[in-house]
Design a protein that fits this description.
By secondary structure, this protein is α+β, with helices and mostly antiparallel strands. The protein has a single domain, classed as Alpha-Beta Plaits. Strands 2-3-1-4-5 form a five-stranded mixed sheet. The chain is globular and about 45 Å long. Strand 2 and strand 3 form a beta hairpin. Helix content is 45%, strand content 17%. Helix 1 packs across helix 2. The longest helix has 17 residues.
Length: 129
């Protein structure tokens, strides 16, 4: 799960139309870095979920860091000019102890919250400890 850092500030500074262009540009960038079998969707507001079938937590963590770095390095082109953004990501792994998708998403969301509370623009993994 990922969230755009300080997205309200983007909307307040550049306007909602530019904010929409940022979301569209970001999703295009993310899609270009994931596999066809992976599933990406908007979870709410500026939160995006990517489900990575047959990928362990180490592989998901590596992808999350590549996505984070890629987004950070290149501003999103908009009608208001390029807008730099960063993302915070939370990674969780589906295990037999997780009863359903909602629980998996809750874990990823918890890890993402830790990333945001720890300074943003980073990846955090959900751990059972």
């Amino acid at each position: 799960m990922m969230d755009l850092d300080r997205f309200k500030q983007v909307n307040d500074t550049y306007g909602h139309a530019a904010g929409d262009q940022v979301l569209i540009g970001l999703t295009g960038r993310l899609r270009s870095k994931i596999r066809d079998v992976d599933v990406m969707g908007r979870y709410g507001g500026e939160e995006i979920v990517i489900i990575l079938p047959e990928t362990d937590i180490q592989g998901a963590s590596l992808l999350a860091e590549r996505l984070r770095s890629h987004v950070e390095k290149t501003p999103i082109d908009t009608d208001r000019g390029p807008i730099p953004i960063t993302i915070s990501l939370g990674v969780a792994e589906f295990k037999s102890s997780i009863p359903d998708l909602a629980s998996l998403l809750d874990r990823a969301d918890s890890a993402m919250y830790v990333a945001k509370q720890s300074g943003r623009n980073q990846v955090r993994l959900y751990t059972d400890e």
